[in-house]
Amino acid sequence: MTGRLAARARSFRYAARGIAAMVASEPNARIHALATIAVVAAGVALGIDRGDWIAIALAIALVWTAEAINTAFEALCDVASPARDPRVARAKDVAAGAVLLSALGAASVGVLVFAPRLAALAAAFAAAR
């Protein structure tokens, strides 16, 4: 059993190393990290409910997963085709588009979750003045 546990622990270390490499090498991953922190902080500050946390968590996971797949795909493309090839460029563009689509979906979730709360806060602030 210890061999299996050690293998699982190694798998998690490799995954963590991959995530760290992605954040270190990809500017968009750092933007996603800042957005993740901001959204979680807003969720805590605004006291969102369990269902909203589920939606937010899934949206965050989707964006990070898309970014990780895109980063891995681009790295493999660069190794497989070091010279510029329009077919490879197109494939990389499509992968980057998947990240954009996931980010737009996550932004939509953010609007649906946070807009009503922010509007209520703005109304309460205006009424208090």
Structural description of this entry:
- Helix content is 91%, strand content 0%.
- It has one domain (27-128): Helix Hairpins, CATH 1.10.287.
- It has four helices and no strands.
- The chain starts with a helix and ends with a helix.
- By secondary structure, the chain is mainly α.
Describe, in short, the structure shown.
The chain is mainly alpha-helical. The protein has helices at residues 2-25, 27-46, 50-80, 86-128.
Q: Average pLDDT, to the nearest integer?
A: 96
| Approximate helicity band | over 70%
Q: How many domains, as an integer?
A: 1
How many strands, which pairing sense, and closed or not: the largest β-sheet? Answer: none
Provide the succession of SSEs. HHHH
**How many DSSP helices?**
4
Strand content: under 5%
Given the C-alpha coordinates, what overall shape results?
Answer: flat
CATH class: Mainly Alpha
Radius of gyration: 19 Å
- In CATH, the topology is named Helix Hairpins
- Provide the structure class: mainly alpha
Per DSSP E runs of 2 or more residues, the count of β-strands stands at 0
Sum up the structure in keywords.
single chain; 129 residues; mainly alpha; Helix Hairpins; flat
SSE layout:
Blueprint lengths: L1 H24 L1 H20 L3 H31 L5 H43 L1
Helix pairs in contact: 1-2, 2-3, 2-4, 3-4
